[in-house]
Amino acid sequence: MNLTQISPSLRYCAPSIGLYFNTPSSLRRHRRLPLRLPTALPPTASSVPKTTTTIIPFLPRFLNPHFVTGNCLLSRMEFQGILIRVVCVVYSILVYFPWDVQSFDNDIRRHACPSVLDGQVSSLNGPASEAVEIDKRFWSGSGIGTNKEMVENLQSYGVVRSKKVSEVMESVDRAFFVPDGVPPYVDTPLPIGYNATISAPHMHATCLQLLEKHLQPGMRALDVGSGTGYLTACFALMVGPEGRAVGVEHIPELVASSIKNIEKSAAAPLLKKGSLSVHVGDGRQGWAECAPYDAIHVGAAAAEIPPALIDQLKPGGRMVIPVGNIFQDLKVVDKDTDGSINIHDETSVRYVPLTSREAQLGDN
């Protein structure tokens, strides 16, 4: 049994994990297991296994391939690899025994964080090796050296779909908003200190797409957990000088550094004019001074949707917020013109928690 292919999602630019079992034909006849070739990447002579491949479609919702979408660092998601191993080991013992447990365990651990594969690809061969190389190129942003190339890469995967989002992400150079010495265009969350992160580019693009209609010129936007200020700057460019973009962050040092970041970006004139501002505060309470908001983005996972944010959402407005503890969903909250609330789940995600400043810094 091998993890023989890791591929970019057709909907989100996070890696999808496919489990492929090499099974004898006699066992397949008795079990009547489904047979189909991988569809996430075009099959080629070198990528399709020589033996017959069976895809196991049993993984439950909390092991959704898009589970890694979010801003939680991969190092904090080791439990997911454990869950995958436990479920797959039990299933395979019942249906596929015997198989190479050590090989499967190694594949899971290696694929859970592609960065650990450096110098180890030679230990794999065949389709698994090719899949690892694909995965490493995808996560490292190999060949992506400019902000424009990063956006074009997101467009090629269908994450960036509108001209407006593309223009804004090209205008706001991500390099100004990540720590020095870190590859800025890697499609993965990055630590920014204080137990906080900047979300992966695909997550920023996803949220901008979801909020685009509520980020029209003259509208108001709130960014809760604004971090280094990247998404707040994007909001400001979208709503323009006649609109209002507000960032709220409870770490004073991050607020200070985010203002410096914005001053180096295309959003600097809006900061100077006052239509863009970043404040120190508890994002769970929103920022009532500039409410109501047409768009609210929350960059950390809340156990429940904070009532204050619902109150500050304008009728006809939309909020995007990750909700949950161990298992999280990116929820889209729409407030109708009559004040009624509609909520739907967009995808499974993994974000850092939305908590108090003391609790966040207490983990240091």
Automatic annotation (TrEMBL):
EC number: 2.1.1.77
Coiled coil: none
MF-aspect GO terms: protein-L-isoaspartate (D-aspartate) O-methyltransferase activity
Source taxon at top rank: Eukaryota
Catalytic activity: [protein]-L-isoaspartate + S-adenosyl-L-methionine = [protein]-L-isoaspartate alpha-methyl ester + S-adenosyl-L-homocysteine
PANTHER family: PROTEIN-L-ISOASPARTATE O-METHYLTRANSFERASE, PROTEIN-L-ISOASPARTATE O-METHYLTRANSFERASE 1
Protein family: Belongs to the methyltransferase superfamily. L-isoaspartyl/D-aspartyl protein methyltransferase family.
Name listed for the protein in its UniProt record: protein-L-isoaspartate(D-aspartate) O-methyltransferase
Taxonomic source organism: Cucurbita maxima
